[in-house]
Amino acid sequence: MTIFHDNVGSLANRILEEVGRDIVLGLPLGLGKANHVANELYARAAADRSIRLRIFTALTLDPLRWKSDLERRFIEPLNARLFSGYPKLSYVEALRNNALPSNIEVNEFFLFAGEWLDAPLAQQNYVSANYTDAAKYLMDRGLNVIAQLVARQRPGSDTLLSLSCNPDITLDVLPLLAQKRKRGEAAILVGQVNSELPYMGGDAALPATAFDHILEADGYDFPLFGVPRLPVLDAQYAIGLRCAALISDGGTLQIGIGSIGDAVVYGLCQRHQHNKVFCGFPEADSACRRIRRSDPVAINFLRLRIRNARRCSQETR
Fold first, then answer.
1. Which pairing describes strands 188-193 and 145-152: parallel, antiparallel, or unpaired?
2. 282-300, pLDDT tens digit by residue?
3. Which of 155, 188, 220 is the endpoint of a domain?
4. Is the Cα torsion angle 205, 225, 38, 192 positive or negative in sign?
5. CATH number of the domain within which 26 lies
6. Tally of domains within the chain
7. CA–CA distance, 123 with 128 (Å, rounded to integer)
């Protein structure tokens, strides 16, 4: 039975009751972490050394730091823009200062490049695990709690909750947690609802009943950190166009963060929404005129496609 909470303290109490005082906590990569849940469990373990807390995660993001006044003047407004209102993870500062309590351990299998150069403890506890092996690695080390940020489809306890941008490892782990429960071992899935997290369907959408505990209250809602988005250059549009032409219908594509990824997605959208133009049909010019007013970026991209199609046509004559 799913239990809804509007107080993270009561949720932490239930986790300790159900799992015990040896908590192996899985937090998704990057944006998917349930920060308030993680921070409450960290606070409990820091205050009570009889609680053992092991955290397994990847890509812990934190506001940037500075070492000089010049760096401060650049970074402060950047942090205000990217991380304003985002709750910091409590374990980060202790990990940076090599000051984690002896009963708390943090392992990451993906580190932000250059972020932990001055943190020996973070490097020593780094786990070199292939992403495809992460679920097995977690279970081998006794994972018994997953705390994940989720998006709500609509109000009501019978709604679907989306794992949003972090479904991959969680979906791999859930069947393994079910097997663990069948053996009589404790294993729970915790969701923290965030109103700004994008709802994504498909396999990422789970019924609320799939969760053992759900934390939802205005006091635990927070803005998501922003990722700098660089403009897409013409050469990158060309790369995206070429990639879009190579992907088969019904194919699956994993896309990383960055302008080339944006260009690939844009190319695929154009292939789907304006296929004749994408394929370089003779009526491409008139099609461009039809969409010019609604999508000014598209016109430049499509002109590039038309020029390329005409050049290829001339070369084959």
1. parallel
2. 444 555 555 545 555 555 6
3. 220
4. negative
5. 3.40.1080.10
6. 2
7. 11
Domain limits for position 196: 3-220
Burial of residue 190 (CB within 10 Å: 0-12, 13-18, 19+) is buried
Q: Are 23 and 45 in contact (CB under 8 A)?
A: yes
Indicate whether 128 belongs to any domain: yes
Structure tokens at 164: 């949003």
Q: How far apart are CA 171 and CA 199, in angstroms?
A: 16
Written as one letter, the residue type at 10 is S
Task: Report yes or no on 18 lying in a domain.
Answer: yes
Q: Are residues 40 and 186 in the same domain?
A: yes
pTM of the predicted model, to two decimals?
Answer: 0.79
309 or 75, which is more confident: 75
Sign of CA pseudo-dihedral 203, 205, 210, 211: positive
Q: What is the per-residue DSSP string for 102-125?
A: TTEEEEESS--TTTTTT-HHHHHT
What pairs with residue 53 in β-bridges?
A: 23, 104
Whether 51 and 45 have beta carbons less than 8 Å apart is answered as: yes
Task: Give the separation between CA 179 and CA 245, rounded to whole angstroms.
Answer: 42
pLDDT score of 301: 59
Region at 114 (left for phi over 0; alpha for psi -120 to 50; beta for the rest): left
User: Is residue 228, in this structure, part of any structural domain at all?
Assistant: no
Q: Do 178 and 145 form a contact (C-beta atoms < 8 A)?
A: no
Tens of pLDDT, residues 251-266 = 778 787 788 888 898 8
